[in-house]
Predict the structure.
Amino acid sequence: NEEVRQLTDKVRDSAGRKFELVTCAYLELAKPDLATAIETVVQAGADKITVLPYFLNSGNHVIRDIPAIINKARQNYPDCHFQVTDCIGMYEGMPELILRQVEAG
């Protein structure tokens, strides 16, 4: 989980002013869970939340769990706009990224 937190920090730094808040959340076994992270950023003033599922494929978390959490959040925070991107494994540049990593050794 520390690697995820470190990556989140790097994304936050790289994003600059594109996003006011960048945070990570977990679905099981670690904190904060996604519902708690949503509550935290809404309380901090977020009115638009984009969730990027950090998964390589569309398993149960991506297909079932995340949409259920977001649907409940939409009910709890009707003034907030929620967007869920495709999981990171669906990123169209993923093949090139994988090859670059392999070539870097």
Summary: The longest strand covers residues 48-51. DSSP finds four helices and two strands in the chain. The helical segments are 2-15, 34-43, 60-76, 94-104. The chain has a mean pLDDT of 96.
